[in-house]
Request: fold
Amino acid sequence: MERTVIADALKSTAFGAKMNVKGWVRTRRGNKNVSFIALNDGSTIKNIQIVADIAKFGEDFLKPITTGACISVIGTLVESMGKGQSVEIQADEIEIYGTADPDAYPLQKKGHSLEYLREIAYLRPRTNTFGAVFRMRHHMAMAIHTFFHERGFFYFHTPLITASDCEGAGQMFQVTTLNLYDLKKDENGSIDYSRDFFGKQASLTVSGQLEGELGALSLGKIYTFGPTFRAENSNTPRHLSEFWMIEPEVAFNRIEENMQLAQEFIQYCVRWALEKCQDDLAFLCEMYDNELIDRLKFVVNNDFQRLTYTEGIRILEEAVANGRKFEFPVGWGTDLQSEHERYLVEEHFKKPVILTDYPKEIKSFYMKQNDDGKTVRAMDVLFPKIGEIIGGSEREENYDKLKTRAAEMGVPDKDIWWYLDTRRFGTAPHAGFGLGFERLMLFVTGMSNIRDVIPFPRTPNNADF
Ligand code: 4AD
Ligand code: MG
Reply:
C-alpha cells in the first residue's frame, strides 16, 4: 500500500478508507484498553493520532513504541472525537521499523532548551521547533528562486573556491593540499604556492559578487544563491562561519533601483511565509515571539525608510546628546554597530531602514564613488531585531577609479585583473546586493540565534555533525 504523508492524511475526509502512514512517535499514552500514538513524519507540524486497541496488539507488542521510535501503520481513517484534531487512524497493522530506547534517546517529550538542542543538532529536526524552522527554510528558498525567475533573472553559479578576496577583509578559509607537516618555504620565508593544488593560493569564497558582476554584464540580470564562508572570529547570535547568501546583480541599475529591488524582494519572501507557512508560523509565534506575525505583516505593508549614513549619524548623535547610552561611540566615519542600527530601526523610525552613501573607508573597493570624494554609493538594509540583513551598492564602473581604489585598499591587481577588465570592455553602470539567508530566516521565524535557523551551524570552535 502506498504511503500517505501525514499532511495529506490530516486534510483527508475519506472516512472509512484504508491508509498507510509512517513516521516517528512523539508520544504514546492511553489506558488499559487503548493506546494513543501521536505520529509525525515531518510533512507538517501537526501529528496524526493513531488509535491502537490493546486487545488487538497486546501490551508487549506496543511497549517498545516509545518517543522517537519509527513505525508504519495501516489503518482506517476515522473522524476524531478528541479535541484539536479532525481525523485519526484506527490501526489494523503496525510495523516497528526502529525503536528508541527511552533511557538513551535524548529527545524526551517537551521542554528542552535551544542550547541543549544545539548539542544534539543531528536529532533536533525531529522537534516541533526545528521541524517548523527547516520547513520554512525550504519555503524561503523556493520564494527566492520564484521571485527572481518571475522577474527574468538567471540563476548564475559562482565558484566556491576562489583566488580573490571579494570583500578585501582577509577573512578567508584557505584551501590547500600542501603537506602542512612539511611546508616548503623559500628564502624569504614565503610558502611556494606554485606547488599547491591550484598552482596558487586559494580559499573558500566570502561572496560570489565579483563573478556575479561578470554574469550581469553579459546576461543582464542574475542572482547567485549559495554558501559563503567567513573566518571572522565573531561569536555573536548573528554570525556564522558558513552561511548562505543570495546576491542579485543587475546591469544598468542604479542605487535607487537597487533599493527598490531589495525592498520588493524581502517583502515578497515575507509575504510567501505568511501565505505558505501558516501552521509553522502560528507555532513559532505562540512558542517564542507573540509579535512575530504582526511584525511580518508590518514589513510587507510598509515602505522601508531611506536615508543617508550622514543623516543616520546625525540622528544617533542627537540621541546621544539627549542621554541615550550606547556601548560603542557614534561619529561620522565610524562603522555602525548593531546597537546603532537597531536604534534607528526599532526606536527612531520603527520600520526597516535603508542607509546609503557610507564613508568610503569603511566599505569595499568596488563601490561607486560619489562626487564628494568621501562617500560611496553603498546601501545597507537594516531590520528590526536583526540589524543588517542586506549589504549592497552601485558598482564603480570607471576603470581608472576602480583600479586606483583597489590599489589603495590593498587588493592586488593579479587577483582581480579579470574583474578590472570588465571596465575596459563594454563597461556599464550596474548594482547589486547580498542578502544573508540566515538573517532572513531569523526574521521570518522569530528565532533569536542564527545557530537555530541552519541545520548544522559552523561557528568558531564548532564544526560538529
Ligand atoms: O555586507 P556583506 O559583507 O556584503 C557582501 O558580501 C557583498 N559582496 C554583497 C553584494 O553586494 N553582492 O554581506 C552581505 C550580507 C549581510 O548583509 C548579512 O546579511 C550577511 O550577508 N552576512 C552574514 N550572515 C551570517 N553570518 C555572517 N558571518 C555574515 N556576514 C555577512
Ligand atoms: Mg555588510
In short: Residues 141 and 437 are 9 Å apart (CA to CA). Residues 166-167, 207, 209, 230, 232, 239-240, 243, 245, 247, 388-393, 432-434, 436, 438-439 surround 4AD (ligand 1) (CB under 6 Å). The radius of gyration is 27 Å. DSSP finds 14 helices and 16 strands in the chain.
